[in-house]
Amino acid sequence: MTLLEAMSIGKPCVVTNAGGNPEIVTHSKTGLVTANDNQEELKEALITISESEKMRASFSENAIARFYELFHVDKMMAQYSKIYKKVLEN
């Protein structure tokens, strides 16, 4: 939830590819996704994003758009409704 909350307010994220992170953060569009257990890659991603205002601004705009496109409560409710209807039909 923290990752989604950050994206909803336009915070560009640097994450590892553990769990569902890569499903939420699109690498080089809404943030940076690094290999799990690779401290050097994570460090470089943090440095890269901290040094580029243009990148942060782009990721911020894209993160908000992706959040509202896929993860806003209205979208999530619609998706859950589809699943429930499908289950009930079967």
Kindly state the number of beta strands. Answer: 2
CATH 2nd-level architecture: 3-Layer(aba) Sandwich
The CATH class designation is Alpha Beta
Radius of gyration: 15 Å
Beta-strand content bin? 5-15%
Q: How would you classify the helix and strand content by structural class?
A: mainly alpha
| Total of DSSP H or I helical runs spanning 4+ residues | 5
Order of helices and strands: HEHEHHH
Broad shape: elongated
- The low-confidence runs, each spanning 5 or more residues with pLDDT under 50, are none
Overall average pLDDT: 94
The CATH topology label is Rossmann fold
Number of domains: 1
Give me the side-by-side strand order of the main sheet.
1-2
Q: What is the helix content?
A: 55-70%
Describe the structure in your own words.
This protein is mostly helical. It has a single domain, classed as 3-Layer(aba) Sandwich (Rossmann fold). It has helices at about 1-10, 20-25, 40-50, 55-70, 75-90; strands spanning about 15, 30-35. It has a two-stranded parallel ribbon. Helix 4 (about 55-70) runs parallel beside helix 5. The longest helix has 19 residues, at about 55-70. The model has no long low-confidence stretch (mean pLDDT about 95).
